[in-house]
Structure prediction request, 659 residues.
Amino acid sequence: MPKEEKKKKVNYADLSICTSTVQMLQKIAEDGYESAFDRALDLKPCPIGSDSACCKNCSMGPCRLNPRDPYSKTGVCGATIDTIAARNFARMVASGASAHTDHGMSMLDIFRGVVNGEIKDYQIKDVEKLISVAESIGIETKDREIKEIAKDLYEELERTYTQVEGEIPFMKRVPPKTLEKWRELGIVPRGSMREIMEIMHRTHIGVDQEYSNIVKQCSRTALSDGWGGSMVATEISDILYGTPKPLQAPVNMGCLKEDEVNIIIHGHEPNLFESMLAAVNDPKNIEKAKEAGAKGINIAGMCCSGAEVLERHGIPHAGNFLSAEAVVATGAVDIMAVDVQCIMQALANLSECYGTKFITTNPRAHIEGAIHIELEETNPMECCQEIVEMAIERFKNRPKRIVIPRREDWGIHGFSHEYIKYMLGGTFRASYKPLNENIINGKIRGAAGVVGCVNARVKHDWVHTEVVKELIKNNVLVLQTGCSQISLAKAGLLKPDAAVLAGDGLAEVCETVGMPPVLSCGSCVDNSRILVAAAEMVRTGGLGDSIADLPLAGAAPEWMSEKAISIGHYFVASGVYTVFGVTFPSIEGTKFHKHLFEELEEMGLGKWGFAKDPYDMAWMMIEHIDKKREALGIMGKKERKLFDMADRRALPEEHVVSA
Ligand code: SF4
Ligand code: MSK
Prediction:
């Protein structure tokens, strides 16, 4: 069937619950182009790859095993399914961890430049945060100059990456029992460079060929991400750009303005966006935009770059990862400037189709067909000024047909762990005690981190939304990061009045405190905020001695990136039951699968779970939370099940687009 004919048959409303995205996917098809959603329909996932039953670690392969009978064959070298799947998993952890830690390293590079005076465009904005981070890792702060403290902090945090032997600085934040367990298991991370290097070595042909020993290194590496590289990225970003506090902000494509120059920033590191904010607010640039016939310059975010400034400054967010092509298809985007991670290569071509200037800015991420204007940290305004001028130029030559979906949703964003503490305990007794007490008295059943990507293999935004709705309905407080929180913002669940959808106990707490039942905590690296919150809950007392004791669970319902695997595994290694949707890179019934899904918990860590159905996923988490409540002796009155198995089975199958 010719492509055009095929496209006409797609009902995009089956592929996403985001009405703006659906409208633009339809437009892309009508205009004769294609999106990731179309390509996902055309390109079926390889079943052997999905099950992680293939290896291409040497040129005697690639070796493909039979996923239906995984022990019937080995690779040419004799590698079993357990070795192959564990090695593949380990390389996903290494890649994901390297993305976060390299992001953290960039932030640390900027911090070093600020501290030694080489970088003038960024400054230490949040001195209080600088002091609290320094104190949390044992740096003396009393009667010392800020510059001296900052210098010591830089030197300490550099060890997060480079330390060859011994524990990294943020191990001081880990609850003692959790740390003791890691020491016993030999998984306390050294510097992330060493851990990632060791994973790559171990997974080379003929090195580590025992799945549980490979997983041990996965744990060590993932922990060097969550409690290392990611945590450094979050903390340094807060120090340089401010610690988030809740603010109301708009989300969705309605934030694009027909009569203004529109600039979209997409990617992950906050520095590009922070400098672009300075450039678009420069009165000279606003004047130039007006001279070109625009009312002003409008800037909005996508993905995690967007999440960084959404939570810090309330800058509008145009959409999550899978909406990037849809946003370009409006024709209203004058410039899309990107840095690193989750930027689809297809955006370069599609931008050309719609006349949008597509700019790469980071030396690590050039894209064929894009214009590269490198952002130099010592002079970021040069790049940003060029981008603004190009955007104004493009505004003058905009195509006649612009279609902006009118939808704009709003929500409350910016729940840093510091603010959660303050919100619950007040200015003078900031504490997690009220949260713990409400968990102990059963008003709040437990907490869940629902995070991660969106994925063209499932109905966009739908799985996230249903998981979260089911959790809050059953009194589970939800914390969110990454693309997931944008899905829920669009569904209206980040507003305080979403408490009407929560169970009675959670609703009562939300109404008393004035908070939504779903807390938006930031970008992918800000999952570290959830780790710190969990450590605080343990430290506050009454909910056990380690993170593994907490009535806490995690989920990435629509995950797609290798970073998600690293995040998932650092939550598991930290003691959290973590459920993934879409697909999982292992085969049920293999020793490797059993190790991840059962044995890690028996060893005193968390464990992995998998479910495609959002209600199954939510109930796996709720049942785990109840198991932990039972063990803590705080089960109390049995929470009422508002959506039982019979309800779940009655749901139509078509919610999952493809397997
Ligand atoms: Fe095949 Fe072994 Fe080479 Fe992997 S390492 S491709 S299983 S021979
Ligand atoms: S951007 S890693 S799609 S959350 Fe952080 Fe979204 Fe996942 Fe990228």
